[in-house]
Design goal:
The protein is an alpha+beta fold and 76 residues long. It has one domain. It is built from two helices and five strands; from the N terminus they run βββαββα. Strands 1, 2, 3, 4 and 5 form a five-stranded antiparallel beta sheet that branches. The longest helix is centred in the middle third of the chain and has 17 residues. The radius of gyration is 12 Å and the shape is globular. The model has no long low-confidence stretch (mean pLDDT 89).
């Protein structure tokens, strides 16, 4: 299993994941990033709309990014 880190990143605000999560595959990390982005969207935290969840590996390399969309767009 590999450790993946999920950072919420925007121009005005950043929240870094210092613990990470162990997952079997990068696909699993991508799916979790989608769920985290959805969670931010439905919480009604509009300051995160337009930001993204960046996924890093244990070496700190960015693997991919999932946008946080408006909850209105998520429900469509």
């Amino acid at each position: 299993m590999k450790r993946y880190f999920f950072d919420a990143v925007g121009e005005q605000r950043r929240e870094y994941d210092y613990c990470g999560r162990h997952l079997k595959t990068a696909e699993g990390a991508f799916q979790l990033a989608e769920l985290i982005a959805l969670d931010y969207a439905v919480k009604g935290e509009d300051e995160w709309v337009g930001c993204s969840i960046n996924v890093r590996d244990a070496e700190g390399q960015k693997l991919f990014s999932v946008p946080i969309q408006s909850s209105f767009l998520v429900a469509a």
